Amino acid sequence: MILGVFLHATIAYKAYPQPVWPHDPDYQSIGYDYLYFFIHSFRMESFYLIAGFFARLLWLRIGTDKFIIHRIKRVLIPFVACVLILVPITITPFIYYREFSSTQINSWSLFISSMRTSFTSWNGMAHLWFLYYLMMMYTVMMLFLNFRNNQKVIEIKAFIDRWFVSTIKNPRSIWIIIMINFGILLTFETLLVDAYTGLFPQWNRLLYYGLFFGYGWLLHKQVDYLDLYKTRVKLNLTVGFVLSLMVFYLSTNGQYTLPDILLKLLISAQTWTLVIGFLGLFLLAFSNENKPLRFISDSSYWLYLIHMPIVAWMQILLIGSSVPVEFRFLLINTVTIAIALVTYRYLVRYTFIGRVLHGKRNKPYMSPSKVTV
User: Fold this and answer.
1) How many domains in the chain?
2) Is residue 303 part of a domain?
3) Which value, to the nearest 10 degrees, does the dihedral of the CA atoms of residues 320, 324, 326, 331 take?
4) pLDDT tens, 4-59?
5) Is it the case that residue 366 has pLDDT exceeding 70?
6) Using 50, 70 and 90 to split pLDDT, how confident is the model at 110?
7) CB-based contacts of 27, cutoff 8 Å, min separation 6
8) Less Cβ around it within 10 Å: N or C end of the chain?
9) Which residue has the higher pLDDT, 103 or 142?
10) What digits encode the pLDDT tens for the residues 328-340?
11) DSSP H/E element including 300
C-alpha cells in the first residue's frame, strides 16, 4: 500500500506527462518514469496474491457466513463510505489543476462550476477501484466454493494442486503461469495493465488480477512450501530487475524496440519474478514479530485511502515554489506518510474507523508504577 504513495508521487515529475495529473514544468526526469513503471509492474499483483492467501486463511478459520460478514465490514462498508466522502475530496485537486493550469481559464467561478458538475456526475472510483475488483473476486470465490464437493471439481482441484506444488519445487515451471499471464495480457491494448476506475467491470482485468488472487489461494493450501521462496530471492529479484530495465528501455527509447507481443511476454516474466522475489524477501526479512512494522502494516489501509488528495495537492503547491526541485518528490512522500501515520494513530487506530478497517486494537496499558508525576 505504501508503494502506492511513491507511485503516485512520481507522476508529476515524469518526463512523459500523464493526462489529468499535475505535471511540474520545473523538473522532469526519465528516472521517475522508470520508477513508476517498475512499481506498477508488480504492486497490485502482489496485493491480490496476498489477498488470495489471507482469504483462504480467513475462510477456513471462521467459515463462509462469518467470512461474508467480515468482508462486508472490512471492504464493502469502507468502499461505499469512501466513494461517497473521499472520492469528491480526491478529485478536487485534479479539477483545480485542470482549470487553473490553462492560461485561458483562470476563474474561480468556472472552477466552482466545474466542481459542482463533477460532484453531481459519476466520476468513477478514483484509487478505490482495487476494492471494487477485490469484492468481485470474493463473489467468484464464494460461487466456486459452492461446488467444492462436486466430484469433477475435486478431480480438477487435485490436478491443480499437483501442478502448483511442482511450480514451487521446480523454478522452471513458473513459465507455465507466466504464459497464462501473457495470454491474458494480450487482451489489453497497453503494455501494462493500467488503472481502470469505471463502474462497469472489465472481464480481462478481473481475469488478470484474479490469476494472482488464485495463486495466493493455492499458496495457502501449500503453506509448508513457503520457505522455498526464500531460497530464490536473489535470482528472482535480479531477473525481474534486469527484465524491467530491458523492457523500459525497449518501450521508451524510440530507436531499438520489439513488437508489443514480445514486450508483453517479457513483462509477464518480469512481473512474476518480481512478485515471487519480493514475497521471498519479505518472508526472510519480516518473519519475526516487529511492533513498529505491525503498526505500519495496520496503518497501510488508512494510508492508501487518504493519500491521493494529499499527494496531488502537494504536487500542485510545489509547482513554481522555492523548494529545490530535487527535494520535491522526497518532501511529498515524507509529508504524506507523516500525515497518514499521525492521523491513523490519533483519529483511527482506537476509534470506530479503526474497528471497521482492521478490527479492534487495544491501547497499550501503562501500569501506575511507570507513570511519572
Assistant:
1) 1
2) no
3) -90
4) 999 999 999 999 888 889 999 888 999 999 999 999 999 999 999 999 999 999 99
5) no
6) low
7) 13, 325, 326, 328
8) C
9) 142
10) 999 999 999 999 9
11) helix 291-318
User: Distance between CA atoms of 328 and 318, rounded to whole angstroms?
Assistant: 7
Q: Which residue has the cell 468513477?
A: 124
Name the most confidently modeled range: 11-15, 250-254, 369-373.
11-15
Q: Domain span at residue 148?
A: 43-287
Which pLDDT band holds residue 123 (cuts at 50, 70, 90)? low
Backbone angles phi, psi at 176, to 5 degrees: -65, -50
Q: Which residues of 27-65 are buried (b: 16+ CB within 10 A; e: fewer)?
A: ebeeebbbbbbbbbbbbbbbbbbbbbbebbebbeeeeee
Query: Could you give the CA distance from residue 27 to residue 16 in angstroms, rounded to a whole number?
Result: 12
Predicted confidence (pLDDT) per residue in 299-322, tens digit: 999 999 999 999 999 999 999 889
pLDDT for residue 80 is more than 90? yes
What average pLDDT does the segment 280-285 reach?
89
Residue 323 belongs to some domain of the structure: no
CA 261 to CA 201: how far, in whole Å? 25
Tell me how far apart the alpha carbons of residues 334 and 71 are, in angstroms, rounded to a whole number.
Answer: 31
DSSP-assigned states of every residue in 162-214:
HHHHHHHH-GGGHHHHHHHHHHHHTTSSSSS------SS--HHHHHHHHHHHH
DSSP state of 73: I
Query: Residue 220 in contact with residue 57, Cβ under 8 Å?
Result: yes
Distances (CA, A) of 210 to 44, 214, 248, 256: 11, 6, 25, 34
Q: Alpha-carbon distance 75 to 206, whole Å?
A: 17
Residue 120 CA to residue 212 CA, distance in Å, equals 36
The amino acid present at 216, given as its one-letter code, is G
Report yes or no on whether pTM surpasses 0.85: yes
The answer to whether residue 326 is domain-embedded is: no
363 exposure class (CB count in 10 Å sphere: 0-12, 13-18, 19+): exposed
